[in-house]
Amino acid sequence: MSMSIEQEKPYEEPAIRLCFNATVYARVAVGILGVAILCHLASTGSSYWIAGELDGHVVWHEGLWQSCYIKPLDTWVCVSYVLDHHINTVPGWFKASQTMAILAIVSSVPAAMTMLLYALLPTLGGRKVASVLSIVLCITSGVFVLTAVIVFATLYPLLPDHATQDVYFHWSFGVDVTAAILFFIPPALLIVDMRKSLLWIV
Q: Distance (Å, rounded) from C-alpha 135 to C-alpha 137?
């Protein structure tokens, strides 16, 4: 009587599929955070936070880092950091808006990293820490952006030389307001996801 000995199969490490087990809440949160960061970067780098029109044509526009105005023969001149209609100085409130915008970028980068860890690695040992940290950083980024736009909107002076112009907030300002709102959505989604996965009480 012959006995057949089965050969043992070599052990294979289970394949890890990133985002395979991520919940819908986590995926949506990552997507919205990415859009918020892109909106804030585009707004911060542009020079269209506010603009002035004369006879239906934009004659000057300004952002956090640059002021541009039109000269005769439709020639545009842009000056970085120095705001010509602010007597060639950058006022303190303007620097505050710049600082808040930069701090929002600085805090949003680790927020995105920790949120990716939470979403893409569902077996991560410190998943609760990653989620809480990303929530705090997202809210912090949103507060920074919101502070930047509020300071800019409330303290930007409408000087006498603008009396004959139509002065209004341009697209960059609106994009940053949108970014501020978007920054507060991912934390809410993560809180819901944590409660559903019982991670909140672990």
A: 6
